[in-house]
């Protein structure tokens, strides 16, 4: 008897074989079918989630009913809701080359806001937080005399040197007075030494990230192979 679980099992079995065909035959039509299906389903899922959780409850429904989350909206609030509606409609003009210029303003607004949020997040959420975290790693003066305090001090110095050396790796300032004619400007030996140390920290970081990605991919592959070997639907 073909139940929904059996049908979904067959679909998963078939799609797994199509994806794993890339290992044997490289980029082939069967692998492309599975890839296109995944992209299409993912895009459709994102559209439905955005419409159900953002557009309908926060834009369309308040404009129709005049309420949001059970709270009546004023006339000013309902008029302000027309701005995102108009911006969304103008963005749709990007689909047509002849009318795409009308979508430039909302697109520029989205890019500007996104850049501002990104820069603010990097400054407040990364630079400041990492600086405070590096400062908080250092033990107090009363703890330095103990064995645990010395270990914490060594760890804090190691982290501080790694962070500074990594930042110096991306420092591209160079002197131009001491260079020979015809030679490009070079950084000082002190900066070059710190950059070399930072390169080691960067290599270790990328190696750890690659190992994590590789282990995750290998785990997924083992799980899919186990699924193929143990797949035995009850008809």
Please report the distance between the alpha carbons of the first and last residues.
5 Å
Strand share of the residues? under 5%
Question: pLDDT below 50 for ≥5 consecutive residues: which ranges?
Answer: none
| Number of extended strands | 2
Shape: extended
Structure in words:
- It is a single chain.
- The chain is mainly α and 235 residues long.
- Helix content is 75%, strand content 2%.
- The chain folds into 2 domains: 1-80, no CATH class; 140-235, no CATH class.
- It contains 8 helices and 2 strands, in the order H-H-E-E-H-H-H-H-H-H.
- It has a two-stranded antiparallel ribbon with strand order 1-2.
- A hairpin with a 2-residue loop joins strand 1 (67-68) and strand 2 (71-72).
- Helix 4 (82-91) crosses helix 5.
- The longest helix is centred in the last third of the chain and has 42 residues, at 189-230.
- It starts with a helix and ends in a 5-residue tail after the last helix.
């Amino acid at each position: 008897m073909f139940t929904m679980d059996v049908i979904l099992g067959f679909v998963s079995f078939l799609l797994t074989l199509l994806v794993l065909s890339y290992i044997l035959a490289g980029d082939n039509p069967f692998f492309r079918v599975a890839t296109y299906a995944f992209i299409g389903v993912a895009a459709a899922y994102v559209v439905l989630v955005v419409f159900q959780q953002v557009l309908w409850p926060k834009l369309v429904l308040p404009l129709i009913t005049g309420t949001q989350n059970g709270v009546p909206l004023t006339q000013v609030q309902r008029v302000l809701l027309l701005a995102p509606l108009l911006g969304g409609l103008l963005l749709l003009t990007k689909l047509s080359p002849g009318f795409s210029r009308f979508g430039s303003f909302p697109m520029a607004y989205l890019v500007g806001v996104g850049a501002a949020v990104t820069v603010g997040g990097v400054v407040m959420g990364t630079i400041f937080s990492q600086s405070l975290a590096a400062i908080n790693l250092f033990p107090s003066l009363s703890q330095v005399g103990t064995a645990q305090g010395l270990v914490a001090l060594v760890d804090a110095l190691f982290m501080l040197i790694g962070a500074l050396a990594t930042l110096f790796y991306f420092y591209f300032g160079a002197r131009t007075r001491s260079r020979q004619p015809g030679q490009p400007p070079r950084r000082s030996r002190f900066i070059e030494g710190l950059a070399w140390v930072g390169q080691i920290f960067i290599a270790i970081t990328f190696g750890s990230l690659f190992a994590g990605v590789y282990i995750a991919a290998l785990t997924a592959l083992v799980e899919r192979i186990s699924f193929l070997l143990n797949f035995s639907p009850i008809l």
